[in-house]
Write a structure and sequence with these properties.
With 318 residues, the protein is of the alpha/beta class. The chain has two domains: 3-113 and 251-313, Periplasmic binding protein-like II (D-Maltodextrin-Binding Protein, domain 2), CATH 3.40.190; 116-250, Periplasmic binding protein-like II (D-Maltodextrin-Binding Protein, domain 2). It has twelve helices and ten strands. It has helices at 3-18, 38-49, 65-74, 84-92, 146-157, 172-180, 196-202, 215-224, 261-271, 274-283, 292-295, 305-313; strands at 25-30, 55-60, 79-83, 106-122, 137-139, 166-168, 186-191, 208-210, 229-233, 244-256. Strands 1, 2, 3, 4, 5, 6, 7, 8, 9 and 10 form a ten-stranded mixed β-sheet that branches. The chain is globular.
Length: 318
Amino acid sequence: MSRRQAFVFALALGAIVALPAQAQQFFRIGTGGTAGTYYPVGGMIANAVSQPGKIIVTAQASNGSLANVTAIAGGALESGFSQADVATWAYKGSGIFEGKPNIPGLRLLANLYPESVHVVVRKGSGIKSVADLKGKRVALDEPGSGTLVNARAILAAYGIKESDIKPEYIKPNQAGDKMKDGALDAFFFTGGAPAGAIAELASAGAGIDVLPIDGAAAEQLKKTSGFFADDVIAADTYKGVGQVKTLAVGAQWVTSDKVDANTVYEITKALFSDATQKTLAAGHAKGKYITKENAVKGAGLPFHPGAEKFYKEAGVLK
């Protein structure tokens, strides 16, 4: 082998040895059921912030908030979407995590958008209030979902125990199918409006109504659970449904303190680039809420250092 060949060979070998340092990183986002809001928003974000050759972000369907924070704690996911209430409880060991191991390593990447509480009934069912659900067949969403946690709190605020209804623990799209077939009277869903499964149901058959959550019950819920806020689902968000007063909780993107700070910084920076912001605003009704100003609101747990670095540089966090 000539000196020149040996030199070229050494360079090539050096490049091969250096490859692992340049290897692509994979960053997963746990979302929710395919009929909800987390799944399409997660897919949009993953596509927009991925940097081929550097960081590949993927969105995965899951059972929702509780399942996501648990998977992050166990290392099965790098990140996930969660309702603000569930994320705060998980971090502090309060609420549904009372008496259970908390997740002290949970960190906030961004607060995303408000999630409206929907209580959906068939149009013409005669059910006008949450109080009317007593004795009815009601879907509360799956175990592991934030919706189930909210549904139980809301029923209790209206003086209804789980034993007072005929509960089912199924996803909103399955609940919609059962409602179409006349096998279900109502279902709960906490998520950004419009939600695909509900929009589809509103356009089919007799249509739907969404029950209000207001008055004394709403005031009690806001007092006992500070993460609930007043919300309005605008008229015609769903076909044939007028304006509805309800409550909302923040949808948050959470991660682990074990995730590399530079990786989170790059993802956060990409999330708020002009190109991503345009994509999100055009791609989903909730996309326009995902701004760097909203990202730092309602934080019930510490920011990941990588996200914090970006928000400080952007001037939205001191």
